């Protein structure tokens, strides 16, 4: 019977979230001997989701083990309880690890029910970080506390081994034509950002011309959030040039080429909308440029700017930032520490020239998953 410590990773099926929690878990497994399993949390919808995750979950911080079990049963977690019964939880040191607001209540409830430790990655929208034994949160969240580890970017699974293996796979499918290559990682639309065909027509031709002048290959990919019209415009522009060695459109191909691109390319351009892509590029140690994109306007954007003004005036805490200003702080922190270079379409030629003048030695030693793994292990298995 296996009585080693047990880590239970709770998966809410959001790719960006699971990349973070798996990245930390994988680093932890390189540093310590324990068993790890992965459970999917229930997928609730509509009124049932609001009731369980937004309303009833507020009682969890003060819940008894019996109260936590009642919440799990009401929140569709009977299968989680049944699976826990099979792993001999009474005699093992347990750690429940999750990323994202959907999985967080299940993480806390299971830890309370089975007397384990709880660790959440990112700040849960309803519960915050205080109820958890450990919380790994980005600096721009503005959270502090004895149970909080502050990171600069998002933890991820990038490692030298992954970069090498994925680079080989990428080049077997798309053999290089030139000795050097650049990557272009294009995100997409969300509540804060928009990447329209107009942005493509402004930015991409300049990148294509710069790559041709530098005699490098381009490896380009999009996101599942990229507009169909935007992908069509990208495909049209890339079809007229031989400098593009790979164009992988996320709407047509489910593969994730990002680790391979980061492993092969000396320079990478990321759009500002994806914290995950930016963090992965910096972790890989390649020269990284973040290109600004369109922002949604209206009352919501105005309220974000008012909040930012109040934070700058020290009338509100940094943790009150939300939307674009919140993510801008992260990018600014990266830039201030020389991890990346900001490129704006408005000043595209000068910004691009400045970026291309940066030496190719990159920035090594940045790995938030490694930092988080050591911190968690010291608190779980001292």
From TrEMBL:
This is Nucleoside-diphosphate sugar epimerase. It comes from the Bacteria. It comes from Pyramidobacter porci.
